[in-house]
Amino acid sequence: MKRSISINLNGIQRQLDVETDATLLEVLRDECRLSSVRETCGIGICGACTVLIDGEPISSCLYLAPLADGRAVLTVEGLGSVDALDPLQEAFVETMAFQCSYCTPGMILSAKALLASNPSPTRADVARYLAGNLCRCGSYERILDAVLAAADRQRPSH
Ligand code: FES
Ligand code: FES
Fold first, then answer.
1. Which CA distances in Å does 20 have to 54, 66, 72, 101, 122?
2. What are the tens digits of pLDDT across the range 27-66?
3. Ligand 1 neighbourhood includes 134 CB (under 6 angstroms)
4. pLDDT for 107-153, tens place per residue?
5. What stretches of the chain show up as alpha helix (H) in DSSP?
6. What is the 5 CA–ligand 2 centroid distance (Å)?
7. Ligand 2: does its nearest atom lie under 6 Å from the Cβ of 135?
8. How much distance in Å is there from the Cα of 133 to the middle of ligand 1?
9. How many angstroms is it from 158 CA to the middle of ligand 1?
10. Which of 26, 29, 100, 121 supports an S-S bond with 125, CB 3.0-4.6 Å?
């Protein structure tokens, strides 16, 4: 059975017909062709499928697409552009905070939510907040460096 939903996807209003039991991950990848939203575990453990819903990070593999009706969904494709990267994207590139980059979109979106609520996190704050995002390549130290660099860059004094 299908249901029509209306979502603001990366700043653009979209009307989508989704199966009532489809996950948001399936809809974003298969219908919207947003390949940054990645599936690894499929059970809410790895964070690779993280997107922001109304600014809050969620595991899209566990989130039914109809629940997104009327909400704003942000994937990393909506964060910046090639010419104007988001400060987090810039910091990840400059710090080389990845190896395979499979975890990177989810990491960046979780970090985006953290910096929105806490613009001056400590290293421990960042590590704690990103505990639900796993990196199989073990790039954790550089990821923390990147988030702290982005926080520094975003603070009004800079
Ligand atoms: S694929 Fe969703 S948390 Fe791992
Ligand atoms: S950079 Fe490969 S999983 Fe994180």
1. 21, 6, 19, 31, 41
2. 999 999 999 999 999 999 999 999 999 999 999 999 999 9
3. no
4. 999 999 999 999 999 999 999 999 999 999 999 999 999 999 999 99
5. 24-26, 87-95, 104-117, 123-129, 140-154
6. 33
7. yes
8. 9
9. 35
10. 121
